[in-house]
Amino acid sequence: MPASPSITSPSFTMIELVVFDMAGTTVDEDNVVYKTVRQAINAAGYSFTQEQVQSAGAGKEKSQAIRDVLALDGTEHPEDEVQAIFADFRFRLAEAYDSLEVVEQSGASDIFRELHSRGIKVVLNTGYDRPTAEKLVHKIGWTIGEEVDALVTASDVEAGRPAPDMIYLAMALTQVTNAASVAKIGDSRIDIEEGQNAKCGMALGITTGAQTESELLQSNPTAVIHHLSDLIQLVDQTSNATV
User: Which residues form the signal peptide (predicted)?
Assistant: First the structure.
């Protein structure tokens, strides 16, 4: 894992990098991942609701999401059961993505271009493994190194969210050294907590995906926005504060 970057006050640091979550934030895949998590878990003999799955599992590396959903019943579940459900989930998700029309969240490419015009780097990060994430990026038509500067996945690091490892790797890949110059945005509480644990200048929630505004606010984000376009104003406000 890259060394922990320096930390300064976000009030006096311009944003140099925005790290975006994928599903529910920049990618619109009709919430298929959490629907599939629920299908795989309940196929093993459980009856968890979609709300329970999203509340316990949103934003996490997917075997951890399964582990945390199962823990809701108050009993200890063996790791071989978790891994069997995870294998079934991966099979079901691959089938779903083969036929699903995956599109970007409204205006995502425009926001990437707008940030790049300001000299700000753009990185995608995700609780998916790399093959799944790359399949999504390809389906949408984005190219790493063009629309986005880098892609960081849960399988690229030792510890997934809410650990800061993925953000630290995103910083290393884009040569950004100060965590206070980074903004993290995602549609789940664990995205916000990941940004906070990395000491990002902004840790933002967005209501286009897994969790509601009231749920996101429980993690004390810098702000909760309702559309990706709202991000530009926040970035500009941070930049103006440094002048």
Answer: none
